[in-house]
Amino acid sequence: MTKANVKAPFLTWPNAWYNAPCAFWPQQAGSPVQIRDSAELPPILLIQGERDAATPYVGAVRMRALFHRSRLLAVPGGNHGVALNGNACVDRRLAAYLREGTLPGARQAPSGAPDARCPGIPAPVPVVAPVTVRVPAGHTAGRGDRSR
Q1: For residue 89, what pLDDT is reported?
Q2: What is the distance between the alpha carbons of residues 10 and 81, in angstroms, rounded to a whole number?
Q3: Is the pLDDT of residue 63 over 70?
Q4: How far apart are alpha carbons 12 and 80 in whole angstroms?
Q5: What is the model's pLDDT at position 92?
Q6: Is residue 115 within 8 Å of 104, Cβ to Cβ?
Q7: Residue range 39-61, pLDDT digits in tens
Q8: Which of 12, 23, 46, 121 could form a disulfide with 4 if both were Cys (CB 3.0 to 4.6 A apart)?
Q9: Is the separation of the CB atoms in 50 and 57 below 8 Å?
Q10: Closest-CA residue to 70 (of 34, 128, 33, 110)
Q11: Through-space distance between the first and last CA atoms of the chain, rounded to whole angstroms
């Protein structure tokens, strides 16, 4: 997990804790869902963070390969929820897809390259609460205190 934390520091450990019970779940897993393309399906928009610890980028590339009328919109960074999370570029493309069925970009060759990109939003910065220092009566606040 520490190697994954280097690449995706904001999701690695929470993801490990959320999924840890699955390793000890008393029931056997069911059969995997069979996923296949169909001419009856509408075009599909896939939106993926490139360093998402919960759903790796390679999975989106594989999903795009399964659905021939899909498009992959990639966003740099490790955010898991890249849509409706403050990224105007992603939200604009999602709205166009939902409103009109518009897919971004032209389909790329079956490589890992996305069909379209949006810039990422800055990584979150931990907030440190201000610390109040109480100076006991009779003590100075610092060496340079000359208030006496």
Answers
A1: 96
A2: 12
A3: yes
A4: 11
A5: 97
A6: yes
A7: 999 999 999 999 887 788 999 99
A8: 12
A9: yes
A10: 110
A11: 55
- What does the DSSP assignment read for 3-68? HHHHH-TTTHHHHHHHHHHHHT-SSPP-PPPP----TTSPP-EEEEETT-SSS-HHHHHHHHHH-T
- d(C-alpha 50, C-alpha 148), whole Å: 60
Bridge partners of residue 75, in order along the sequence: 49
Residue 111, token pair as written in the block: 């490589």
Side-by-side strand order, sheet with 45-49: 45-49, 71-75, 116-117
Question: Which H or E run contains 98?
Answer: helix 88-100
Cα 96 from Cα 2, distance rounded (Å): 39
The contacts of residue 140 (CB under 8 Å, 6+ apart) are: 147, 148
